[in-house]
Batch of 3 targets.
Target 1
Amino acid sequence: MDSYDKAYAEIKVFRQKINDILDKLERSTIYSMDTLLQTMKQYLQSDTDKCSKATNGLKKISDAINNIKNDQNDVTFIAHQRASEMVSHADSILKELTVHRSTVVTFKSNPSIDETLSGFRCLRDIKCDEKQPDKNKTTILECSNKSLHDIRIASDRSSCDIRGICGQKSL
C-alpha cells in the first residue's frame, strides 16, 4: 500500500525531528554543565593560588622570625605583628574555602517535558480517508429502492417532501 508506506515514512521523519530537538536540548544542557565545571575549576585555581600565596608569606615570616637575634626587640615586634596579620589573612581564606568546598552539581529535569511527552497517546492521528473519485471519471448511481412516506405532522400548514436520499452500498 503506497499510502501506508508514505505514512510510515512521515512518522519516521517526524520522529527524527523530535530526536533532533532532544539532541539540541541535551547539547545545550551539557554545555551549561561544562561551563559550570570550568567556572568551578577557575574558583579552585584561584583558591589554590590564594593558599600558596598565604603559605609562602607565612613561611617568609617564620624564616624571618627564626633569623632575628634575641637582642633586636623592635624587629621582633614588627615581625610578630606581620605574622599575626598573615595568620588572620590565612584564617579568612580557610573560612572562604570551606564555603566553596560544599559545592555539588545536580541535574533536575524539566518536569513539563516529561509530563508533555507522557501525555501523548501517539505521535499523530492516523486516519483512513476514502479517496475521492476524479471529476473526469463518470460515476453511475443506481436506484435500488423507491418508496413514498408521509412526513407531515399535524402542525404543518403546507406540504413537505423529501426529494431524494443517497447512500453507499456496504461491501
Target 2
Amino acid sequence: MKPATPPQRCTPDPVAAPLEFAMRFTSTPRGARLARRLVSHRLNEWGHPYDSSVNEAVTLIAAELTANAVRHGHVPGRDFHLRISEAEGALRVEVGDTRGERLPAPGPPGPEGESGRGLLLVEALADDWGTAPRSGGPGKVVWAEVRLPGAGGREPVRPVRSGTP
C-alpha cells in the first residue's frame, strides 16, 4: 500500500510585490548627485530604460527633491533619506529630511533668481506631489508620484535638454 499523498492545493498566482529602493545619503551636493544617479540606475533595472521618458522624468524629480533637501532641509550632522517604489502602476519618490518647519511652497521665481524653479519642474512632471510628517522622528517627507503609461497615467513630459531640437 502506498502512503497517502497530500491533496494538491491550487494557489493563486502571487501578487507581484512592489519594487522598492531606500537609502540614506549625506546632506551634501555630492549625496544628492549620488542619489540621482542611483535612482536612474534602479529605474533601468526595473525595466524603465535610461532614455525613456519615465526614467528621465522620475530622475529629474528625484534630483530636484534631493537638491531641496540639501539646500533647505539640511541640519548639520543629519542625512536625508530617499525612497523610490513602484506599485499599482505608479512610481513614487520620497525624500525625507529633518527640517519639518520648512515646508516647500512652489511660487514664481524672480526674473534674475538662480533658484526657485525646482518645485515648478516637479509640479509639471509629477501626476501628484505633496508633503507628510516624517515617521519616527522630526522632519518631513516630500513625495511625488508618476503614473506609468498603460496604467491610467499619461506619458510623462520628456525634459528638454539644452542644445537638443
Target 3
Amino acid sequence: MAASWVSSVLLGYGLFGHCVVLLITYNIHFHFLFYVLWLLCGGLSTLRMVGALLSRTVGQTPRLLLCGTLSVLHMLFLFYLHFAYHKILEGRERRGSDRERSGYTYPLY
C-alpha cells in the first residue's frame, strides 16, 4: 500500500514540467521556445517518472513496455495540450472577425 502511494506521488510530480512549459509558452509565444522547453523540461520530468517506475517494476520486458509507453504518452500529451490551445485561439479569432463583419453582438460567456 505504501509503495503504490509513493509511486503515485512521484508520478504526480512528473506533470510539474508540463505546467512550467505551458506557463512560459503561454506568456512568451515562440514555437522554437516551446520545442526547447518541451525537450528540456518535459524530457526531464519524463525521465524522473521513468526512473521512479524502473526501480519498482519487476521483469525486464514489462519494465521496457511500461516505461516506453509512459514516456511516449507523457511527451505527446504536452504536445497535444500546446496545439489544442492554438486551435481554441484560432476559433476565437475567427469568431471575433465574424462578429465584427456581421454587426451582430453575440452574448459573452
